[in-house]
Structure of G-protein coupled receptors family 1 profile domain-containing protein:
Amino acid sequence: MNLANVHCISNSSYTTKSRNMNTSTNYDDAFEDIKRRAFLLYWNELTSEYFLPNTIVLAIYLSIGLVGNIAVILVYQFGLDKKTDGRYFIVPLAWIDTTALIVTAAFNLTRNMKPVIFPGHGACKLLIYLSYVTTCTSLFLLNAIAVQRYLKICKPFGSQMNIVWKRFSVLICTIVSVLLYIPVLFYYGIVETINHSLGNISGHQCNKLPGSPSQLSGLKIFQGFGFFVTISNVVTITVLYICITIAIVKQLKRMKFIKVRRDNVIVTTSDATGQTYAPKIQVNLQSATSDTEISMETSTRMNETHTTKTATKKSTFRISFMFMTISIVAFLAYLPSWTFIVIETNNPAFWKSLPPSAFHICLTLRRMYMINHFCNPFIYGAFDKTFRGKIKNMFCK
């Protein structure tokens, strides 16, 4: 065997060993990757089971809200007179609440079911941005409704919101919300989290992005500005409805006083002795003059007109109280969420420090804002007899 053959055999042997080593390395890498994915899925499953009570609550919110808001849209959009002044904002509010409910439920359910394998940076940013926009639009629209009711009740002879201004107010509420929460796209996204107990397995959550102290200060400034805008909305709505309540109470007292006077009117005459008595009126139907008939007909029409005006005013008052109740419920639903946003911003380790029972209670309160997006159909049913009747006909046939 010559030297060249020996050299070829040695090179071939070296190549075979290298291939075997590379194959062994590839197998090891593949096994490690499979093991890492298995641990990651196991970690995700454990965490999603921990969130299960809240997941059930969110599913109930979504089921009730979709049925209720769709019923509101069907009844008020297609079943009732669209020209009714007091009910105009109900349909836009129902559409916004439906959208907000779907977006917030999708976002929170995804965070519950895929807590450490959130599907994508873009999905995280989009869902959290739309959650803020739709929720804020709903609150702004309640402000526009309060202004409309204030003009209707407190300034009945002044300028009113016509159909153009109502549509424009819905558009303005949406545009302001879209622009106001653009910074959310820069402060939230996919954040890496590590589980040291499972061999330093890394997962991905949708949360606030880490950053420099200046970036965190910017986030606090943005949240503070958003909190100020929200509080300003609530204060404005509160002041307007206080004025509306005072005006309604005064008008109800005036209506009651007029009714009492009408019921107590007695035609009296005085005789020579100064005594007062109610005259006895005898009417001969056969000899009744046309003047008497006209007088009785006119009196009947006046009574019918007064009754119609009274019923219209009471309907207006009832709708105002309905929207007032919606605003109060919205404020109570948002209040815990605002409180926990402030807490978690100033204490990032807040949620990790809670025991299980306290964690689930606080998480339910943190996401309590979703109640505002599905409770309105029940309020409409309590205050609007026409809506209640339509719903009975729809579901009880």
